[in-house]
Structure formats: structure tokens, C-alpha cells
Amino acid sequence: MATIRDVAQRAGVSVATVSRLLNGTGKVREKTAERVHKAIRDLSFRPNALGRSLSTSQTQSIGVVIPSMSNPVFADAVAGINDEARTRGYTLMFTSTDYDRDEELRAVSNLLDYQVDGLILTVADPEHSPVLDMLDETGLPYVLIYNQPTDEKRPTVTIENVAAGREAADALAGLGHVHTGMVSGLFAASDRAKARREGFELSMARRGYPAPMIVEVDYVDLDVHTRLAAILDGPDPAPTGLFCSNDLLAISVIGALRQLGRKVPKDISVIGFDGIAVGTHLHPTLATVVQPSREMGQTATRLLLDRLAGKETPAKVILPHTLRLGESVGPVTKQSPTDLQEPFQPAHRRPAS
Amino acid sequence: MATIRDVAQRAGVSVATVSRLLNGTGKVREKTAERVHKAIRDLSFRPNALGRSLSTSQTQSIGVVIPSMSNPVFADAVAGINDEARTRGYTLMFTSTDYDRDEELRAVSNLLDYQVDGLILTVADPEHSPVLDMLDETGLPYVLIYNQPTDEKRPTVTIENVAAGREAADALAGLGHVHTGMVSGLFAASDRAKARREGFELSMARRGYPAPMIVEVDYVDLDVHTRLAAILDGPDPAPTGLFCSNDLLAISVIGALRQLGRKVPKDISVIGFDGIAVGTHLHPTLATVVQPSREMGQTATRLLLDRLAGKETPAKVILPHTLRLGESVGPVTKQSPTDLQEPFQPAHRRPAS
DNA sequence: GTGAAAGCGCTAACAC
DNA sequence: GTGTTAGCGCTTTCAC
Questions:
Q1: Which CATH homologous superfamily contains domain B161-290+324-341?
Q2: Which of A96, A112, A278 is nearest residue B82 as measured by Cβ atoms?
């Protein structure tokens, strides 16, 4: 690989001149510029970003840390980040953490070593996050997405999760659902799931309805089927409406319900969260709360890069979410569906409460 | 930020000793090591990867360039790449190109500037690719995924696309479909779509069946509805079986068919390609050819890193694909569905042939 | 306009 | 075992 020194030599100038030309800093005589350009072409020289970064102490790169690539909601956000970063000349360093807190720390540490200029990330728990503490300590600029920390200092692009949860409940209640449930991934791994639950429960409580049953499933486990069978077949009145903390989960839930002989939405309504594209292609189409994921990524990137450029930026941006009523929700047909046929659910498989 | 010099000073040793300790190269007296460790902790020192990379001329990072983040098939591959890279201590630099050839070049050039140790990528056309030419010229190690170049020299992890296309055709033909069609994204942007088409047409030709109708839709356009209406309502016998170059497209197609009053699979069968997870949750479930995307990413990464480590590696790895028959394909019920009701399709909207 | 030279943070001979 | 020192490829004063 040719270096700037080689170019300088071949053009009969000093490295300083080449550098100036390359970066458009300082004036270079037309004649000289031509010679240098020729040398660059002849040697097919490409400036080494490492050398530049070491010298300028900025890398023109930003780190991206998200829980999972396989959830379209994050993939879409990354697409937005990529868009915005690219047009502004920034490169992405990327890691996904699989919802693992230790992995978060490892990933961010690693990106710090690589001297990224800033970070965009979604963490498990922004309230107790070693990662964010570390970042705050370092002073490295970052922007959270999806997370909704109470701390107003932490830069965030998000939606109103509590309100969204409430709206999901309102939608269900509006259709006559009184006994409801929420199916969620591990709350410990998602502050937004917690917030959505809070809103959901709030709305139900305000109506004097029974508290929603909570079904917390492990992302790896995902044995949604067993867990659902248990509550449908349980001693308590079975829910007629189910709120799922995300669309992927909602899709699993609908599949499991089908296997359990329940028809959606006739026997039971299901509403998801995220608004991933495939939802509209399902049959029944998925009712959900739509987050503007791509825009979230774009906005976060814009915020981060503006800040890197020294501009004043808001610490928190709340993007609008929208309720998308799909065919997976409908009016209550029977209030107590416990008398439905139970295809198979031996009593001993019910988990101990 | 503390540097290695600061640490050395505080521990009363030379930078060489600190470096040796950090990298486990060379011996360091127990006593000394302790002092250094303490200094590192006290200063919360983190080695600057830029300095190291500049010195060792390797970055422990690999570049990833794929067409789109929003297609789960690529997202899954990236997940696999991330897995494997992470466990082997490599960091990912990432770009998506939106199927744009110029963008490919820009992206790769950029990653080269950042001195990535190698690249994993999917290009539009591996036969005529300025990017690959550039890479071959540079000598920078890379591995293609999804692409299936004829050139045996270009390292690739892929599946047998022609065979897979043939199998899709066989499946359709086996169900009695004679008049078929293929719906694809731009062939110019996908060598694999071309290969799949080749296999599909081959199988049909071998049977003496009419050549499949080809519907090429632009990824941005995606006006699948109009295009489908045209062929269903056209002068030629309408196809009873449709092969789509990827699952996302198949999902759109099924949606469009539904709007056009066609029932899948009763009136028309649809088979996709990729095997993205949601396919199994659709209703009808999506028939498709499954590619092992995650494994593809993993394998490519393993190959690349093995090569970086100086190991001998195969230039081409063909991973097995599998046919997943879903409910979106079925036997032919009527051979000429042209007499079906046409909900709305004014003649003037038919594109000129 | 242009050049000389001092760094940026680290590794790796090479001495001792 | 440990220290000295010359780079790695670039930018950026400071002279001229």
C-alpha cells in the first residue's frame, strides 16, 4: 500500500502539501495540485484512516449496539442509522448483544477501544446500567433508542411507552374485553416492556377491571404454548384479550392459540407492539402499536452527529406512535371461554403458581 | 484518556513492559505485573486500538456489506456473522447498499480506508463487479455470501441456486401446474435470482411445458398488484403456479392476489425463496426454499478468519438448502382460471407489452 | 504556497 | 525481565 509519503515523493512535494490537498485545508497551487493528483492516481493511493484518526483523534465512526438483529424492529432502526450516517460520512461499527447485559458491557468497551466518536444503543435496563454509567463517566456522546430512562439527562429517542400500553388496553376494553392478559419477554431485559405493562395495567385498573394476567416468557425459552395453555385452562377466568410486548411474540402467541384450538379474534383477541412490516401480511392481520423504527434510527443518528458537530440538541425526543387496528382484535363473543374444548392440557403440566 | 505512557510512568516501568503485559507477549515479573495492573485500574486505562492497529497493521475488524437490512434473510446472516466474529475477537464494520452498485463501491472503498482485515459481502453482480475486481487487485481477503459467481477463484459461501430453482419448479409441476410464472426483483441486482430462474425454466422446458412468464418488479416500485393483474387478465393462459425470487416478494404477491380476488392456493399456488422465519406463521404458511442464512454468515466468517489466520480454506462452500412445502401451494383445480371474476382491472391499466 | 518536524498511542526489534 | 527507540500513516503548528 502506498502511503502519503510515497505520493509526496513522487509528486516532488512534502507530505504536508499532499495532506492539505487531501483535506482541502490550506491553499495549494493549481500546478502542484495536478502533480499530486497524478501521483495519487499512479499509485492508486488511499489515505489510511487509522493514521488520520490517530492524529485527529476522531474516527468518523459511530458504534451501534442493539439487542438483536433478528427482530425487524431493530433491523429497521439500523437501516435508518445506516442511511443517516452514510450521508453524513460516518461509518458504523456494529454489535448485537442478544439481550445479555454482560455482552452489552463487552460490546461497548470494545467500541470504546476502537475510538468510535459516539454510540447509538438500546440497553436492557437504562435505570441500572453499568454501560451507561461507564459512558457518562467517559463523556462519550451517545443516544439511546427504544429505551425510555427516567433520568432526563440521558439522550434518548423513543416513544411514549406507558401511553402506548394504555392505548392498547383502551382498544381492548373498547371492544368489551374485561379479562385480559399481557404476554411479555423478560421484563428485566426490557424497560419498554415494563412501561407498556404499566400503561396497560393502569388503564384496566382505572376501569375497575381485574388486573391483567402477566405471562413472562424467556426469549430463549419461548415456550409460549405451555404457558398460554396454563392460563386458558387455569382456575381464574381466562382472558379474552391478550397484549403482547412485541410483534414477534404476538405472532408466536397467535400460532400457539391456534394450536390450542382458539380462534383469533373470535375466541380471543391479540394485539402486538412494534408495527413490523409483516404484521400487515398475516392472516388475520396483526393489530399493533406502530413505532417509527427507521425514523427512530435516523433521528438518533442526526442527534448524535449534530452533537458531535457542536450543535445544541434536545436530550430527549419523543416520536409519535400509532395504533394499528388489525384483524387480530375483535369484540368479545363470550365472557367466560373456560368451557371451550381443551384439546390437550394434562393437569400436571400446569406450572405451580 | 490515559495512555500506555501514563500507565508506565505511574507503575515506574517502561511502556514496553506495559505493552508486553497487555498482550501477553514476553514475560513480566509477578511483582511488576501487579504494579502495572494497579496503575491500569487507577487510571482506568483502555488501550487505544487505533495505535495498536497502526503499529501492527491489522485492525481485528471485518467489513460487512449487504444489500438491505430490512430483509430478514440478510439480517439473519449478519446475526451469524456477529456471533462468529465476536467469539473470535473481531469487530464488525457495517454498511448496507440498497442494491445500488455505486453504493457498493463507496462502501467497500470506505471500509478499505478503515483498514478492515477482511470483508464479507453480497454484491449485485459478481460476474461484472468493480468492487470484486478492486478487492482482487488489493489482495484483501473476502468471502461472498448468497452470490454464486462462476469464477471458482472467488471465495463464496452459498447454496445451489439453479438446483433450488429446479426443485421449486418440480414441486409445482408435481402438483399439476403447467402454466407457471416467476416473479422476481431486478435480475440485474441479483445473480441468485437469475440462477433460480434458470433452474426453474430448465425444469419446465425439460417437461415440454410452456416457458414461465417472467414478471420483473423493481424493489422500489413493488407495484406487484398491477403487474400481476396484467398477466392474470392477459391474452396468454394465466399461470396457476408462481415462483417468487424471495419470501418478502412472495408475501407481497400473496397479498396482491388476495386483493385481485384469487385464493392461495386454491386458485393459484405461490412458492417463495429464503425461508425467513415469519413464513411459517403466515396463513396460509409460505411454501419456500430454505437457505441456512445464519449458518451462511457463520461459515463465511469462519472461512474468512481462518484465512486471516493463515489456514488453508476452501474457495467455495455450498450449504444445503431445503424445500419447505407450505400451505401456499396446492394441486391445480382449474387449468384456465381466466374466466374468474375480475374485481377491477380496467383495460387501459394494462401495461403495453 | 510550501516544507520540516513534532506528535497521535501503540508494538517490536534490539540492547542490556 | 526490562528499557530504549524507531517506526506505523497521518495532521498540524511553525517557519520561511
A1: Response regulator (3.40.50.2300)
A2: A96
